[in-house]
UniProtKB/TrEMBL annotation, chains A, B:
Boundaries of every Aldehyde dehydrogenase domain copy: 11-291
Family statement: Belongs to the gamma-glutamyl phosphate reductase family.
Matching NCBIfam families: PRK00197.1, proA
Protein name according to UniProt: Gamma-glutamyl phosphate reductase
Length: 421, 421
């Protein structure tokens, strides 16, 4: 059993090593980081048998522990999932390197030339649950942006994560990058998590990857800043000026394409003007697709629906369940979303530009959409390549968090013996 | 005496009002914010007699309390300082409005058009000490960026801040903006500060304005994110390839132009190659200008210097005192700065591009300069207009913090009935 002192010693040691590695990574040539990721991908392929054997150990542990089928599924690796890990590593390797980019530059009357230049953030802590592939994905994105990373995988995926981590380290070694660039906390003890959350001297940002329980704990306990979203309670508002066919397609897709992702619609808001024209067609479509519709009193007459309880609004179902409600125009929708939303993603269905502009202007979710499915709330769909998660905080990173969002910047100022008068 | 419960009630009430005001400010037309600031400037001019009378009360209180002459000077207002406040308000009014700016936009193969649009941060908390003008400066910058602000002035400047705050509110009222956009904590009790630092539900960012004691307290206690620098331990490194005349001018300016600002040089690092060529001329120049030179052993032979104690390196003197040391080339300087620096501002004096590039690449201070005085570390000198402070953290805002740095962003995504496959 790891006590608090041991955990502190462990994280201090890993933190110092990470800080040293980060200082070196900050000026590592892009080609070397790319080569390290490609070498890691090769190692994952070469070590496939070892990774699967490690995963079998985890699966046996999970069965003994009585993990749910959903968790067992997230934990499980097979040849196709390993191929996915390899593909992700190669995709991140191929991405543009964000470090060193001149974000802005200008001249001053004093003769100074000022540049704002992108730099790595430093050290990222990633705390995740059962998916072993996060070891590779998060490690790769952090490295791409020149950051050192301290990974703390779920206890269920302990052996799998360790096997994948060994491949990441092989990639670093093969290219002469510091091994401490990607470290894995070598213990299942939870005391190490608590210590990471307090490690402001060693870790610049914590990214939790997992369910509401994990994210809520991290947000409540962390002294280190956190990039995360607690919930994705995504709304779609069907305005009176919506195009019916677009609305039907988007609503169905937003709920049913995949129900378990944070960009899935959880609440449908229907303008009374839309309802007057088209009735409850959107509710009926969802119902017919097998969605349990929990509706407000004025929609309760629609056959096959159930009455929503008050806590069905502002709830993340992550399932074939959807709340629905009539509202008075865009202002009614805005008021509802302000009260019940989670600042993740909301979409308006309308052909009216002024109404869309009002929706965009008066809401402050990380992502606001028009005539598009909320399921597009994703780093890949945004063209950012891989993402480490989606953030709903207002500081630094919002929306999908890719390599670029894992950077900071510094100012480079050039003069010629320039002094201030 | 305000107890903890009262303080919580007070900050909760102010926080809710600020959040409501912020929601409205987020879409306030730029012209209205500008008009509010101009009206506030007019009010300050019109209320000059009342402000000076309030300031006289504070000065009397300060004398009774035995404040130092330096603090009394920071506290004191006169006609010229009031003119300065008016000028600052008008300058911020005239600045470009950052809200709504499209920071980036791109198209996706799916047909989606994605924009990253600048938004206000929300609610800023500003905690300051004796300078009453911060009431106007900080209030104006926050308003410009569409943020509500909760100001907590020092107890010494209580009446002066209240009188200036009344003018800011007059400006808001005159233009129909919510009065709660700029609130001043109406008590001298310190319990209110502790409550602000914990108010994560109400305040998005805290900006402390004051000495190391205040900033250190805020950084240690705050649960709300903080934009600040604890110290400005600025270094200048005179490389072997420096131009002698530029070096002499910059070094003298960086130390002596104003010693009390965070951009003042506190430590001079001289390359042994520079010393071999030019001797201790930079040390002698500073000494002749009246600076107490605390030097390493290998410079101790220079007449009129004193031997540096170990804690003179990494020390912010804010006075006519400077540490100095010989180092082995740019790598010696980098190693010294990594160990003793405060990530604020460092400058290299060299004519060699590769050496400058190495300095820029291997250090991660918020501001790195070449052949320029560290005294340029200032929002005005960067062309940002006014600044609310300088940040040395890595997240969100670094370097001078002006209106633009007090913003966040959101994504606006436009489709045409676009669904995800």
């Amino acid at each position: 059993m790891l006590d608090e002192t041991d955990a502190k010693t462990l994280i201090d040691r890993m933190g110092v090593a990470a800080r040293d590695a980060a200082a070196e990574l900050a000026y590592a040539p892009p080609a070397r980081k790319e080569a390290a990721l490609l070498a890691a991908a090769d190692a994952v392929l070469a070590q496939q048998a070892e990774i699967l054997a490690a995963n079998a150990e985890d699966l046996a542990f999970g069965r003994d522990k009585g993990l749910s089928p959903a968790m067992m599924d997230r934990l499980k690796l097979d040849e196709s999932r390993i191929a996915g890990i390899v593909e992700s590593l190669r995709a991140v390797a191929a991405q543009r390197d964000p470090v060193g980019e001149v974000i802005a530059e200008w001249d001053r009357p004093t003769g100074l030339h000022i540049q704002r230049v992108r730099t790595p953030l430093g050290v990222i802590g990633v705390i995740y649950e059962s998916r072993p592939n996060v070891t590779a994905d998060a490690g790769a994105l952090c490295l791409k942006a020149g950051n050192a990373v301290i990974l703390r995988g779920g206890s269920e995926s302990f052996h799998s994560s360790r096997a994948i981590h060994a491949c990441m380290v092989a990639g670093l070694k093969a290219t002469g990058l510091p091994e401490a660039a990607i470290q894995l906390v070598p213990t299942r003890e939870r005391a190490a998590v608590a210590e990471m959350l307090r490690a402001v001297a060693h870790i610049d940002v914590i990214v939790p990857r997992g369910g509401k329980g994990l994210v809520g704990l991290v947000q409540a306990e962390a002294r280190v800043p956190v990039f995360a979203h607690l919930e994705g309670i995504c709304h779609i508002y069907a305005d009176g000026a919506a195009d019916l066919e677009k609305a039907r397609a988007v609503v169905l897709n937003a709920k049913t394409r995949r129900t378990g992702i944070c960009g899935a619609m959880e609440c449908l808001l229907i303008d009374r003007a839309f309802y007057a024209q088209y009735g409850a067609v959107l509710v009926e479509d969802l119902r017919d697709a097998g969605v349990e519709m929990r509706v407000s009193a004025d929609l309760a007459h629609v056959p096959g629906t159930v009455r929503a309880q008050p806590d069905d609004f502002g709830r993340e179902f992550l399932d074939m369940i959807c709340a629905a409600k009539l509202v008075d125009g865009v202002d009614g929708a805005i008021a509802h979303i302000r009260r019940y939303g989670s600042s993740h993603t909301e979409s308006i269905l309308t052909e009216d530009d002024a109404t869309a502009a009002r929706f965009f202007e008066r809401l402050d979710s990380a992502i606001l959409m028009r005539n598009a499915s909320t399921q597009f709330a994703d780093g890949g769909e945004f063209g950012m390549g891989a993402e480490i998660g989606i953030a709903t905080g207002k500081l630094h990173a919002r929306g999908p968090v890719g390599a670029e969002q894992l950077t900071s910047f510094k100012y480079i100022v050039r003069g010629n013996g320039t002094i201030r008068s």
